[in-house]
Specification:
- The chain is elongated and about 55 Å long.
- By secondary structure, the chain is mostly helical.
C-alpha cells in the first residue's frame, strides 16, 4: 500500500501562490463597479453617435463653440495624473508609503486643475445662455461632461484617502490592495475622458 509523499517546499509555495494569486489588482467588487460604469458611459456614447447621425449639421455647428484647447489641456492633465498614480503604486510595492502619498498628491493636483478648467467651461456656457435644453448636442455634451466631472471629484476623494493612509504607514509592500483598487478607479476615469474628448470635441 503506497503512502502519500510530502510535497517539496517549492511545490507548497507554488500552490499557495495559485490559491492567493489575483488576476486583477485590487478588489474584485471594484472591478465589477468599474465595468458597470464603463457600460453606462458606453450606452451614452452610442446614443450620442446615433443622435449625431440624424443631426450632423447641428452637431458640427454646436461643436465648433467648444474650446478644444482647454479640452486638450484637460486630457494632458488626466493622462499625467494616471502616470503619477502608477508611480504611487510602484512606490507602495517597494514599501515607500510617504513617497506614494507625494505622487498621489501630485495626481490630485492635476485632477484639481481639471476640475477648475471644467468649472470655468461650464460657467462660460451658462453665461452664454446655453443649457441642456438648447439643442440635442448640448444636452449630450453637458450631461456627459458633468457626469464625468463628478467621477473626477469622487476619484480625487478616493486618492486623497489613500494618500493619507499611505503617509500614516497604513499600507505595506505585501498588502496594499485598497490602494490598487483606488488606482484602478482613477484609471477608469482617465480612460472615459480619453474617449469622451475626441468624441465630443474633435470628431466630425
Amino acid at each position: 500500500m503506497n503512502t502519500p509523499q510530502a510535497l517539496p517546499s517549492t511545490a507548497i509555495v507554488d500552490l499557495n501562490q495559485n490559491q492567493h494569486g489575483r488576476a486583477l489588482p485590487g478588489d474584485f467588487a471594484m472591478w465589477c463597479f468599474i465595468l458597470a460604469e464603463l457600460l453606462v458611459f458606453g450606452i451614452f456614447f452610442i446614443s450620442y453617435a446615433i443622435t449625431r447621425s440624424h443631426h450632423v449639421e447641428l452637431f458640427n455647428q454646436s461643436q465648433k463653440q467648444l474650446d478644444r484647447g482647454t479640452g486638450f489641456i484637460n486630457t494632458l492633465l488626466l493622462v499625467s495624473s494616471s502616470y503619477f498614480v502608477v508611480r504611487a503604486i510602484a512606490a507602495l510595492q517597494r514599501g515607500q508609503g510617504k513617497v506614494c502619498a507625494k505622487w498621489l498628491m501630485t495626481a490630485i493636483t492635476c485632477g484639481g486643475f481639471f476640475v477648475v478648467l471644467k468649472f470655468l467651461e461650464f460657467a462660460g456656457k451658462y453665461d452664454a445662455g446655453i443649457s441642456m435644453s438648447t439643442n440635442n448636442f448640448y444636452m449630450f455634451y453637458l450631461f456627459l461632461a458633468f457626469f464625468h466631472f463628478m467621477h473626477v471629484i469622487l476619484g480625487m476623494l478616493i486618492l486623497g484617502a489613500i494618500a493619507i493612509k499611505a503617509w500614516q504607514g497604513g499600507y505595506s509592500a505585501a498588502h496594499h490592495e485598497g490602494a490598487e483598487t483606488g488606482a484602478a478607479y482613477w484609471h477608469m476615469v482617465d480612460l472615459v475622458w480619453i474617449i469622451l474628448f475626441p468624441l465630443i470635441y474633435v470628431l466630425h
